[in-house]
Amino acid sequence: MSAASLNAVAVSFGQTQVLDGVSLELRTGTVTGVYGPSGSGKSTLLAVASGRLKPTRGSITWSADSDRTRRQLRSAWIPQSPLVLPGRTVLDNVLLAHHIRHPQVAPAIVADALRHLDEVGLAPLAQRNANVLSGGEMQRLAIVRARLAPTPLIVADEPTGALDLRNSSNALAALIAARRSQAILIATHDETIARWCDELYYLESGHLSLRRHTA
Length: 215
Description:
The chain contains 7 helices and 9 strands. The protein has 215 residues and is α/β, with parallel strands linked by helices. It has one domain (2-213): P-loop containing nucleotide triphosphate hydrolases (Rossmann fold, 3-Layer(aba) Sandwich). Helix 4 (107-119) crosses helix 5 (135-148).
């Protein structure tokens, strides 16, 4: 099933064209990776796919828009520098999307959140104020938050860039596991992440080209 589909998308900022006729289908059960030189438009592509940026031309469809009865989000976003809700616990932060939809989160969802926090080594910090987390811990929190979000699509920009080798492996495994029920789009320079991708694309001068397909 397609979580999102981009059709001939173009993005320009003034006289600068960043994306030019990009088409891409993001399917549930698939990890799609995008790499390319700095300034090639990777972050712009992710912003468009996530619904955070409207393209200059072309169209995008999200499966979340076709099923509003479930109140799904279009996407969960994992930025390079994650933000946390100040004054709230780590657990509250990873359950943010659920708190917005329901003041009382079901015990089963809370238990699921604690299990995912344990996978990335954050379970002992679940009741700690998220403000005191290190940058790497915030990055792992953002990965868990995306996995728990009620959305068919996760969009991640260099999701392990701030992590050491051990934490990177744990966080990456937790993120990749989300493809059982979600589509994942990752911009990365990390060869380890690239090897996990079912589809790998190269972006340069606004054009996207498929380099590997194993799905």
